């Protein structure tokens, strides 16, 4: 793991999805068993460049996700390394039995990429706004679940997935993200990253919430509140040591995710802490609601995902730990 | 003469599969007799004459694959693989017991010789499609066989897989439909009919359709697969018109999906299958 934090809250000129697509171009040039399967959404993940470069290893399965999923498992059984893309809503709900049995239970390493996680679906609205996709994959035994935050991280994790021997699911932002890391940053699946040190509380976040968490850190610093910020881009397997250490040293946790809190990152943390080290925890994320249309910024406000929301949760968590 | 001899051997193999299938199910007392017995002849042809497989090297790269998409017919597959020498057949008498390597539905992680895990209907045909594509991408000139049920074909995924296979011209994929006309709740026509017929549906999806008038006749199945091997540019489906429960008299009478006959009835059915096998063995070649 070797990364450079930028985190200046600036909108990236590039598409996050290009982190995936460009990494694919690289790994496909190195390994002729890697291929991309799409469900008529190649244009949405910039996979058209993959098709152009490797027409024989680009498979469009049409608008038929269930077949695409099980079919990818057959490919994996012959030794191919399939990366399969569709929108997160379909990657989760529409082909879940196929992901669970054909891939998970059968132990075939198929790498599912679901675009437009949570509020980043923005004007596509409720039907295309997955708050549950990561949680669904979390309940598949041995599956790997990733929620990268930007171009560099999506690029690095895509590269790492080639060697991942089990079903994986990556929530991939298309647009609407801020640069967190410098290009060339390298990450390890299953290892969280401590972005800011602090001992009053810990914000554990992923995806678009990383930038909001860094803003919250700056806000709180002006109040002399020092929070640790962890990028927990791997939801499963969770970096348990890092979470337990944060609980031990800061005594208050705020989980922050662009996802339903009942099944995502916050739940994964709570499951661990309840058993190993009961700790005050506040949950930033979606609470028992469906999506809706709107600009991403509006939706972040509507669902309480902003830096201000995180800062308020930190203050509350610190109060609670004093009780 | 050579072919006649081979067909006779396949008849014997099918009778052995039937007998062992019922013995495997009898070891537990109940199971999916109907859909297991109806495909015994197809499995006899595949593993007895057609497929390039090696029980001592079950994962060899250039093998032919067989995916039992109607995974509940596991006992027939276990009988076939045991008789073929993948494992001592007696091991399969542990069917569905805790810790057994022979689960109700076929599972490639559990049983030697099973190519892909199935059980949730519709998924196996998609998996087979992927295997056929993967082999082709790697320049492996092998065939992938997939056995589905006519009841299973209610599943939308079957047709997603069918359109994909035709679109990608997977001519090394051969689908065998066990058209026994029955599903769990009754006849296929009663529960969920296939419009102009399941063959017509595959035809509309761009497949070459071969109707096998008697899907329990090893000679007819063999000839159909020989014909299928000649087809290029499209996947092939064999519609096997079979009898559910074929050979297990109690299940054949009712066409039931799963059976739990009394011990006496089961013993009588096994006795009759043993007699059938002896008679077929004695047939003049």
Quick tags:
heterodimer, A: 323 residues, alpha/beta, Rossmann fold, 2 domains, seven-stranded mixed beta sheet, five-stranded mixed beta sheet, 12 helices, globular, B: 285 residues, five-stranded parallel beta sheet, two-stranded antiparallel ribbon, 7 strands, 46% helix, 11% strand
Q: Mind telling me the C-alpha Rg of chain B? A: 18 Å
What would you give as the CATH superfamily of chain B? Answer: Thiamin diphosphate (ThDP)-binding fold, Pyr/PP domains
Radius of gyration of chain A: 19 Å
Level-1 CATH class name of the largest domain in chain A: Alpha Beta
Order of SSEs of chain B, N→C?
Answer: HHHEHHEHEEEHHEHEHH
Give the CATH class of chain B: Alpha Beta
Beta strand % of chain A? 15-25%
Polypeptide structure, described:
The complex is a heterodimer of chains A (323) and B (285). Chain A has two domains: 16-172, 3-Layer(aba) Sandwich (Rossmann fold); 193-322, Rossmann fold, CATH 3.40.50.920. In chain A, helix 2 links the parallel strand 1 and strand 2. Chain A contains twelve helices and twelve strands. With 323 residues, chain A is α/β, with parallel strands linked by helices. With 285 residues, chain B is of the alpha/beta class. Chain B has one domain (2-282): Rossmann fold (3-Layer(aba) Sandwich). In chain B, 46% of the residues lie in helices and 11% in strands. Chain B has a five-stranded parallel sheet, with helices on both faces. Chain B has a two-stranded antiparallel ribbon with strand order 4-5. In chain B, strand 4 and strand 5 (186-187) form a beta hairpin. In chain B, helix 1 packs across helix 4 (74-84). Chain B is globular and about 50 Å long. Chains A and B meet through helix 3 and helix 5 of A and helix 5 and helix 6 of B.
């Amino acid at each position: 793991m070797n990364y450079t934090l930028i985190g200046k809250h600036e909108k990236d000129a590039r598409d996050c999805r290009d982190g995936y697509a460009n990494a694919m171009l690289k790994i496909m040039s190195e390994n002729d068993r890697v291929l991309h399967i799409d469900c008529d959404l190649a244009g949405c993940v910039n996979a058209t460049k993959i098709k152009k470069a490797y027409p024989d290893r680009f498979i469009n399965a049409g608008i038929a996700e269930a077949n695409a999923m099980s079919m990818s498992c057959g490919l994996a059984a012959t030794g191919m390394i399939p990366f399969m893309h569709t929108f997160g809503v379909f990657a989760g709900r529409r082909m879940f039995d196929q992901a669970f049995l054909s891939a998970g239970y059968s132990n075939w390493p198929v790498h599912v990429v679901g675009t437009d996680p949570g509020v980043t679906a923005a004007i596509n609205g409720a039907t295309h706004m997955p708050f549950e996709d990561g949680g669904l994959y979390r309940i598949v035994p041995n599956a790997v679940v990733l929620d990268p935050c930007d171009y560099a991280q999506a690029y690095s994790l895509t590269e790492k997935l080639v060697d991942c021997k089990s079903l994986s699911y990556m929530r991939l932002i298309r647009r609407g993200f801020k640069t967190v890391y410098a290009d060339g940053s390298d990450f390890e699946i299953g290892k969280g990253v401590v972005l800011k040190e602090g001992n009053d509380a810990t914000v554990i976040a992923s995806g678009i919430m990383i930038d909001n968490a860094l803003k919250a850190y700056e806000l709180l610093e002006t109040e002399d509140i020092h929070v640790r910020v962890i990028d927990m881009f791997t939801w499963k397997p969770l970096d348990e040591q890092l979470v337990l250490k944060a609980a031990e040293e800061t005594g208050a946790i705020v989980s922050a995710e662009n996802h339903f809190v009942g099944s995502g990152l916050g739940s994964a943390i709570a499951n661990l802490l309840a058993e190993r080290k009961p700790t005050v925890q506040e949950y930033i994320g979606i609470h028992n609601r469906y999506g809706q249309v709107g600009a991403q910024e509006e939706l972040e406000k509507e669902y309480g995902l902003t830096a201000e929301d995180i800062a308020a949760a930190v203050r509350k968590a610190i109060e609670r730990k004093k009780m | 003469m050579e072919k006649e001899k081979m067909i006779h051997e396949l008849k014997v193999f099918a009778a052995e599969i039937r007998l062992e299938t019922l013995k495997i199910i009898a070891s537990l007392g109940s199971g999916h007799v109907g859909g297991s017995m109806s495909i015994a002849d197809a499995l006899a042809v595949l593993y007895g004459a057609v497929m390039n497989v090696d029980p001592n090297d079950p994962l060899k790269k250039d093998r032919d694959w067989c995916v039992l998409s109607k995974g509940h017919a596991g006992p027939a597959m276990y009988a076939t693989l045991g008789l073929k020498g993948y494992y001592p057949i007696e091991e399969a008498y542990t069917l569905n017991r805790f810790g057994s390597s022979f689960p109700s539905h076929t599972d490639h992680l559990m049983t030697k010789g099973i190519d892909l895990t199935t059980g949730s209907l519709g998924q196996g045909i998609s998996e087979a499609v992927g295997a056929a594509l993967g082999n082709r991408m790697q320049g492996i000139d092998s065939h992938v066989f997939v056995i589905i049920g006519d009841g299973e074909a209610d599943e939308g995924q079957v047709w997603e897989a069918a359109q994909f296979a035709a679109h990608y011209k997977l001519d090394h994929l051969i689908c065998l439909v066990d058209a026994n006309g029955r599903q769990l709740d009754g006849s296929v026509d009663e529960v969920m009919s296939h419009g102009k017929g399941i063959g017509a549906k595959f035809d509309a999806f761009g497949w070459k359709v071969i109707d096998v008038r008697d899907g329990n006749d090893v000679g007819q199945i063999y000839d159909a697969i020989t014909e299928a091997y000649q087809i290029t540019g499209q996947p092939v489906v064999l519609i096997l018109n079979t009898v559910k429960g074929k050979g297990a008299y109690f299940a054949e009478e009712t066409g039931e999906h799963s059976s739990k006959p009394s011990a006496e009835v089961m013993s009588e059915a096994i006795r009759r299958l043993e007699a059938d096998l002896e008679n077929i063995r004695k047939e003049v070649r």
